[in-house]
Structures are given as C-alpha cells and as structure tokens.
Amino acid sequence: MARKKLIITARINEYMPRQPNPHVPFTPDEIAETAAACRAAGASLIHFHARNPDGSPSHDPAVYAEIVAKIRARTDVLIDSTLGQITVKEDAARVAHIEHMGGAGTPKPDFAALDTGSTNIDAYDFAAHRFVTTNKVYRNATETCLFLARKIRESGVKPHLSVWAVPFLRTVDAFLDMGAVEQPAYVQLVLTEGGILGGHPATVKGVEAYLDFMPTRHRIEWTVCCKEGNLFSAAAVAIERDGHVAPGIGDYPYPELGCPSNEALVARMAELGRAMGREVATTDEARAMLGITR
Predict the structure, then answer these.
(1) How many structural domains are present in the chain?
(2) Which of 151, 161, 244, 252 would bridge with 95, disulfide CB 3.0–4.6 Å?
(3) Cα separation, 137 vs 59, whole angstroms
(4) Which CATH number characterizes residue 158's domain?
C-alpha cells in the first residue's frame, strides 16, 4: 500500500543573519526566487519573514503583500507568513499584515503561523556557564491566540499552529474542539537546540514526547522543525511516523553541510523521504491534505 505523501515546508529566512550562511534571502525578489527554487527541489510550502534590505525585520504590510505577489508570479507553492514572534508586541499589530493581504485585490498567503502558548526562548551557553540573554519571553495568552486565530480566518487565511511543548499541543486540542481552528489542522512541532531551552530537543524522544500527546480525535497533519539545530535525525522519525518535515536555513545554517542554500537543503530532505518510502507531495497534493480549497 502506498504511504502518505511527504509535505516539505521550507523555512527560508526567519531572522537569521547571513553569517555564516550567505544564502539567507532578505528582499522580496530574493524571497520569491528562493521560494521558486525550493518548489522545484520538492517543497510544497514556504514559510517566510519579511526583512528589510539590511536584514532587519520588516513589519510593513505592503512589504508582505509584495513578497506574496512576487512568489505567486513565480511559482504555485503554498505560502505561510509569520506573525512576527517577539518582534511585534500588540495583538492587532501582529496580525495587521494578514488583514491587509486579506483585502480585496491583494494577494494573500495560504497560512499564517500561530503559536498556541508561551515560552522562554533565551539561549544558554553551556561552555560559558551563562545565559546569552535572559528576557526573551514569547508571550501568547489564550486570549491572544483566540484573537489571532479569528482575525486570520476572517482574512481568508488558515492558521498554521506551532507548538513548542506538550501544553501547546493540549491547547491545539481545545482550539479544535471549540472550532477556533478548522480541521484538518496543520501543526508544527518545534524542536530547539543551540542552547534554546524553551522547546523539546531535536531527538527521537523529543519528537515522541509530542506524539504521546497528539490529539487523536481530530484530523491533524503534523510536521517538525528545529530552531538552531540540525533537523535530520528528528526528520527521520517524522518521516517514519507519517509526519512531515520543515527544514530551512532560516532556523539553522547547516555548517556541517557546507552552509547550503534552502533549495539544496530541501533536495536533501526529499531524497531522505524517498529513501524511506515517502514520495514528496506536490503543491496540489499538499493543498488537498491541508484543506486549502482556493
């Protein structure tokens, strides 16, 4: 019997600098070109953050709309936009660009990333025996999450749910139960390395701890990503367990692979998936699996 197709999400830039990996895209044209290259390599979904030409975060709704329009002009890949993580403080400001793109005549993404809880994302330096920072709190009150989910849906976009620990996953269960998020849900299991202690480690047990609490009474497609660490070991677990994978040099520069481009990393993941008996999903196949109707 044929196995479930593998959805590859390329997390192309986040807030990553170009050192040590020079391939991180900043400008709308660079992001669109990267999206098209990742689609050709096997990705069916792109997650991006808007950036200024100097690489600093951009929160300008017009820049987000320009990026989405340029991606749409180059490729049929599904598009997932950030809400800004810790760089945007007010709830309404965090979703303003999604509402802007949801307006008449404005290209919009298919997904917007919504984290379903709060955590600390400071990094600890074990060699120096100290924290690098001590005040990076990712705050997402339940009220905030429900507000963002509603605004995303009203904009004609689907929430892409990110979870950093088991309590986040239990909140996903509640949101699906109350209808705050429509099924099938797309849930991203965030793993953390590089000293970030606010998520599960990128290990077999780190992934399985999530799966022990994965809601079974709802339709869910799940994927794994890794902030500041190599995803491949966890990706193999996800592929084996009928999950999906979300690699990208926005999360980690992969110096052990020679600091590859996003599309080269996607190609490696596609090769791993095929080697484990999972054919890579096309955009149309991913759209059907994730409940994207337009």
Answers:
(1) 1
(2) 151
(3) 19
(4) 3.20.20.70
Residues of the chain with pLDDT under 50: none
Is residue 4 a part of any domain in this protein?
no
Q: Which domain holds residue 123?
A: 9-290
What's the CA gap between 270 and 244, in Å, rounded? Answer: 11
pLDDT value at position 294? Answer: 65
For residue 86, the model assigns a pLDDT of 67
Is the Cβ–Cβ distance between 12 and 31 less than 8 Å?
yes
Q: Does 1 reside within a domain?
A: no
d(CA 115, CA 67): 22
Instruction: Report yes or no on 231 lying in a domain.
Output: yes
pLDDT for 105 equals 80
